[in-house]
Design a protein that fits this description.
mainly alpha; two-stranded antiparallel sheet; beta-tubulin binding; ARM_TBCD_2nd; TITAN 1, CHAMPIGNON, TUBULIN FOLDING COFACTOR D, EMBRYO DEFECTIVE 133; TBCD; ARM-type_fold
Amino acid sequence: MAWGCLALAELARRGLLLPSSLPKVVHVVIKTLHYDVRRGPHSVGSHVRDVAAYVCWAFGRAYHHTDMRNVLEQLAPHLLSVACYDREVNCRRAAAAAFQENVGRQGNYPHGIDIVNVADHSYPERNTKRNGKRKRER
């Protein structure tokens, strides 16, 4: 599943995926943003979620905001949930970067910059001890 998603990302990044096919692809991307399979005592799927965020990032880079309006309305809530609640740090960061890229390039998100700032400060690792001292809150 990750390789197929990576192929989609590369096609999108290079602009080879037609804008008319984006609504068909968005359902696959949403499924892969939440992909998780239990294998014994642990889960597998962070690589798929990471690649799905890359697809969303590539969409923001490659397509005009008029082509992306409906797609972004569907992707935004899923990107935000992964950016705030995924258990893997790399998936949270990738989803946050994809959301930020789309906010900056597409401009179709109401209060997009405010959401980026709040989501950026919601990382749990930013509030952990660093070098034995707790980081001061602003």
